[in-house]
Amino acid sequence: MKEFIYSRNAVYETLRARRRQAFSLLLADGLKPTERLAQIRRLALEQKCRLEQVPRARLEKIHPNHQGVALEVAAYPYADLADIFELAEQRREPLFVLLLDTLNDPQNFGALLRTAEAVGVHGVIIPLARTVEVTPAVVNASSGASEHLLVTQANLHQAISELKNAGAWIVGLEGGRQATGVEKVRLDGALGLVVGSEGEGMRPLTVKSCDILLSLPMRGQIESLNAAVAGSVALYLASLARSNHG
Known about the structure:
Layout: E1 2-6, H1 8-17, E2 22-28, H2 35-46, E3 50-54, H3 56-62, E4 69-74, H4 81-91, E5 96-100, H5 106-119, E6 123-126, H6 136-141, E7 151-153, H7 156-165, E8 169-173, E9 180-181, E10 191-195, H8 204-209, E11 212-215, H9 227-245
Parallel strand pairs: 2-3, 5-6, 5-10, 6-7, 8-10, 8-11, 9-11
Antiparallel strand pairs: 1-4, 2-4
Helix pairs in contact: 1-2, 5-9
């Protein structure tokens, strides 16, 4: 199955990652030359991708936020859980995995993927159903970070069991009273961080599967952060803890 990736950063990172076959690069008529466009052209030509000059109207049909470029590529290449374990071994690092329990908003998913890539997670696990997948909208929201990440579709409960068997501590991000303050939770070892959906949080079975529930301190007037912000804060706290411990 083919799809179109749009916007300059998303197209550039997709080509740079070289994980998908690229078929054609559509460039809007009248584009002003920039360094990023030159890089995109060069990468496309290196990968024997067909270049087409097209009217802006054609790109508008793909997505309004095309920024003058669109790249026709093969479907997103999901990884296996074994690939995530292998990457951690290659880097000689304790496991660092992000698990997303039925997240539904492409913007939140993309933002979390961008943070996950920035802090060096070994992989991201999403459920097999009732969840947002890695669509072009998610690639765009992640500024192309999705293309450099291992993302796995799996039964979340089974995946958590495998992570535990591999020695990972499963920490669920939760704002309820039963959660432990982040200052009391160790985040420096092998870790699976679970972020729930935007409205309902984690499903009951997922909550039961966690070793501990973690809450972020809230000192302002609002009661909670959205999933992408809370998850990103927790990922950075874990990254800092791992760096200090190392």
